[in-house]
Amino acid sequence: MRSVSSFSLRACVAAFPLVMLACNSQPIDPATLAAQAALNAREIVHQSGGGVAFTQSDDSGLHKIMDGLVNANHGLAGMMPVSMPAAMSAMSTTAMAQAAAGMPTLSTTEEQFDDTADDLKVFIRDRLLADANVESKTADEVVYLLKGDPTCRSLPKADDLPDAVQTLDQSCVDQLTKMPVRIAMRADGDGVRLTIQLGPDKLELITFIIHSNAIAVEVDFAKAYAASNYADQTLGDGGPMGSTQFEKLAGAMRVSLEKEGEKHVTFSAAVIGAIDVAEKQADGTLGTEVKLAVSDPLWSLEADGVAKTAKVTVDEGALDVLTTWDPQGTGVANRDLHVALGGITGTTTFTEGVQELVSKGIGIGATSISVRGQSIFDLGLNPHDMNRFDLRITVDSANEPHFEITPRFALTVGTHFKNIANDYAVDDQPPSYLLDQTYSVDLENGGGTAKVEVVPGSGSFTGGLEIDAGSLTISSDKVAQPVSVPTGMCLTGVSNPPADANPILGAFTSVSCPQ
After folding, report:
1. Three-class DSSP category at 443
2. Given the DSSP bridges, would you call strands 489-493 and 479-485 parallel, antiparallel or unpaired?
3. Which residues, other chains included, contact 53 with Cβ-Cβ below 8 Å and sequence gap of 6+?
4. CA–CA separation, 443 and 491 (whole Å)
5. What is residue 105's predicted lDDT score, i.e. its pLDDT?
6. Strand-pair partners of 444
7. Residue 68 belongs to what H/E stretch?
8. pTM to 2 decimals?
9. Which of 386, 381, 380, 290 has its CA nearest to residue 335?
10. Which of 392, 357, 310, 468 is nearest to 64 (CA)?
11. 359-389: b (≥16 Cβ within 10 Å) or e
C-alpha cells in the first residue's frame, strides 16, 4: 500500500513534520504566527543536525562498529534510494535533499541541517503561511488556501542578486489550480494544530500538532484515504492511490520530533490506533490484510550531540499478516497464510569514545506461520527470560566484532510442512528435514555472560565463531548427535557434508581455532 500522502503536492505539505512550530496567541495574528513558526522550525532542525552529526563522521566509533559487523556478514545490501517528488520544487534543492539524492558536498552533516533549516524558514514564512494565502480568519482559526504564487516559487539562493525573482514550478501551479489545498490552523496547548484539507469538502489528509518543544504528525488512515481518493480522481495519473482499494482501513499513526535540549532530540513513531488494513482488487478479490496492535512508541531514536550518545528503542506490538497461500502458483487469491509475530522489543545505546553497542531487552514474542489454521512454522526465544536477552558488541584492533550475551540465547524453530504437503506438486514436495522437526540453538554460560568472537579465515580454516566463554549447541529433536562447541573451540561451516547428514546440522562443525 502506498503512502496516502505520496502525491506530487507534497511540495505543499510534506515538509511540515520537520519545519513547523507556532506559539498560541489569542486572537490569532497570521503574520506573527507565521514568522514565529518559521523561526522555531529553524531552531528544531538546527538542534536535530547537532544531535545526529557526531554519528555521521568518518572517524565515529559507531562507523567502526558497523564496519566490523558488515565485515562479519561479508557485506550488507545498501539502502534503497528514495526519489524526490517532481513538484517539490521549493524543497528539492536544499542541502539535505541534495545529499539524500547522492550529490557530492563539502558540507558537514550539521552544516547541511543548518542550511536546510534556513531554507525551511523561508519556505514556511513566504511560501506556505504567506499573507497572500490567507483565505479566512477568526479569533481562533486561520485558513490558508495555497496559491500557485507564492507556494510554487523556488527558494532564493545565497548567490542570488537582491532583486532576483524566483521561478515558478508550473506543474505545482497546475495541480493547485485543479485541487484546492488548505491549511487550517488552530491553537493547541502552547502551540498549534494544523490540518491539511483537500478539495471543496475540506477532506482531512493529515494533522500536525506543534508545541514549543515538539512537532507531531498524526494520520487517521480512513480520513486520509478519503482525501487521497479525491486527489486521485482530481489529478488523474498524479494521484497517490492508483487502483488500490480497501476492504478494511482502520488505524492511526503519529510521527514526532522532540527537542530535549541543546543538540538533543528524539525522533519517534507510534501506532496510536490499532491498525487493520485489508486490500482488495477492483473485482472484489481479497488481498493482503495487516493488523498491528497499539505501539507507543513503535520505535524511537534519541540523539544527544553534546554527550555524543544515541539510543534506539523498539517496542512493536503484535503483528498479524494474512495473505495468499498458493504454493503451485495457480493465481488463486485468499488469506489462508497467516504470519503472527508476537512483538519486537529492544533498546540499543551507543556512546562516542566507547567502542561498543549495548542492547537491553532484545526480544521477539512467540511467532508462528500457519496455513488454514494448521501450523507450519513456529519460533520461540528465551522462553524462561521473558523472550529477551541483553547483548554487548565491541570491535577489536583488527575491526573484528565480539559479542557478549546475557543470560543466554535459546532459540527454537519448529517446521511442520507435513501439514500442508498435499498443497505442493508431487515433484516439488517439501524436503524431509522440514516436514516435522524442531531445531534449537543454545548459547549459554550457566546464567552468566556468554562470549563469542568472529574469527576470520586463515589457511584451511574458512572462518567462523570462537566461543570465548560458555558453550554453543545446535540440535534437532530428530538428530541424535548435536553440534557442540565448548569454550575455546570454533564453529565453522562444512563445504561437503556427508550424504546422510541432516542438511542443517550437517552444514556446521566444531573445530580447533587457528592460532
Report:
1. strand
2. unpaired
3. 108, 109, 110, 113, 305
4. 12
5. 47
6. 408, 471
7. helix 61-72
8. 0.76
9. 290
10. 357
11. bbbbbbbebbbbbeeeebbbbbbbeebebbb
Output DSSP code: residue 433.
Answer: G
Total length of the chain: 515
Which range, 70-84, 390-404, 414-428, is most confident? 414-428
Sign of CA dihedral 439, 444, 446, 447: negative
Q: Dig out the grid coordinates for 100 from the structure.
A: 539524500
H/E/C letters for each residue in 290-340? EEECCEEEEEEEEEECCCCEEEEEEEECCEEEEECCCCCCCCCCCCCEEEE
Q: Which residue has the cell 563469542?
A: 452
Binned at pLDDT 50, 70 and 90, residue 107 comes out as low
Q: What is the CA radius of gyration of the chain?
A: 27
Inter-residue contact 406 to 309 (CB < 8 Å): no
Q: What are 374's strand-pairing partners? A: 371
pLDDT tens across 251-310, in order?
Answer: 999 998 888 888 888 989 999 999 999 988 777 788 899 999 999 999 998 988 888 888
Q: Whole-angstrom Cα distance, residue 165 to residue 11?
A: 19
Phi, psi of 123 (to 5 degrees): -60, -45
More confident residue, 63 or 176: 176
Cα angle vertex 484, ends 377, 455, to 5°?
95
Q: Which of 116, 101, 102, 143 is nearest to 45 (CA)?
A: 116
For the chain, percent helix, then strand, then coil, each to nearest 5?
Answer: 25, 40, 35
